[in-house]
Amino acid sequence: MPLTGEIAPRHPVRLRRSVLCLPADNARALAKTTTLDMDAVIYDLEDAVLPEAKATARAMLAAHLSDGVQRPFERIIRINSLSGDTGRRDIAELAALKPDAFLLPKVSGPGDIALAGDLLSEIEDGDDIRLWAMIETPQGVLNVAGIAEAGRTRGSRLDCLVPGLNDLRKETRVPAAPGRIYFVPWLMQILLAARAAGLDVIDAVFNDFRDAAGLAAECDQGRAMGFDGKMLIHPAQIAPANAAFGIAEEDLAEAQAIATAFAEPENDGRAVITVDGRMVERLHLVEAERLLARAAAIAARRPHSELT
Fold first, then answer.
1. E strand or H helix at 148, and its extent?
2. Which is it for the CA torsion 293, 103, 203, 159, positive or negative?
């Protein structure tokens, strides 16, 4: 049964400013993750791996994730479609590695979420593994509210949505254009569905990793739209994404001022107060506390290079 009413936080603050996607069969890319400072890695077994290399990629990833190295970032495995044996084998053979999540490709409806959850429930090591969903088909966009709502059912593992604009461009034949002008309505539809269900949502990739100005502009756009971070395809994109989806000093100072003001004894029990000449409500305190928690997580985050 879907839950109703106010959405409670699903988990402690998780930084997802920079989510690097890399082929699971690229040994050099796998090894390089120990020197990078992204918040999460998506190990791709789907589009980035040729059909004849799927088993090899799975074995390489298993060896990589069982090497005993401490990894201070989220580990997400993008599996193949569960409509075939390959995706089911991905889950069956890799769940024991305890990834933070499996990323489901080309999710078209809530049934895809339910199927993945059922498969994980049958696996002894699958209890704590979450699910991310790629929204990258017309059907997925049309059904995104139902997909996100699946994340509000009891026992659901759904944690995050990720739009896939490359596949959407292919499926809809809508051309790329400056500012992603034709895709903004779909991106906002995905974001709205995620927020309604209390899910995180990560912006789509920027394909030209040599275009620093273009990446910066798209990161700024994604931040303004409300995304939690950006899916990346190259290490050079990590620092710009971390900066764009970080916290500006003035925003941090304002949040601290709001939290401090509400903590004053004279404001105990008050719904509305004045801070620096501005009316501030309790909803602003909730936003401030969320930002301060995120700032604390960023401050506590140590570059991977310091741990190896």
1. helix 144-149
2. negative
Distance CA 40, CA 19 (A): 5
Burial (CB < 10 A; 0-12, 13-18, 19+), residue 121, is exposed
> Alpha carbon 7 to chain centroid distance?
18
Phi, psi (rounded to 5 degrees) for 104: -90, 125
Task: Describe the chain by its helix, strand, coil percentages, rounded to 5.
Answer: 50, 15, 35
Task: Give the pTM.
Answer: 0.89
Q: Is the pLDDT of residue 230 over 70?
A: yes
Least confidently predicted of 111-120, 206-215, 298-307? 298-307
pLDDT digits (tens, 9 = 90+) for 69-97: 888 899 999 999 999 999 999 999 999 99
CA–CA distances in Å: residue 262 to residues 13, 212, 266: 22, 41, 9
Residue reference for tokens 């699910």: 131
Query: How many other CB atoms are found less than 10 A from the CB of residue 188?
Result: 12
Amino acid symbol at 98: K
Q: What does the alpha-carbon distance between residue 101 and residue 76 come to, in Å, rounded to a whole number?
A: 5
- β-pair partners for 230: 18, 203
Instruction: Read off the tokens for 124.
Output: 């002894």
Phi-psi region of 224 (alpha: psi -120 to 50; beta: other; left: phi over 0): alpha
Q: Are strands 18-23 and 229-232 parallel, antiparallel or unpaired?
A: parallel
Residue-level length of the chain: 308
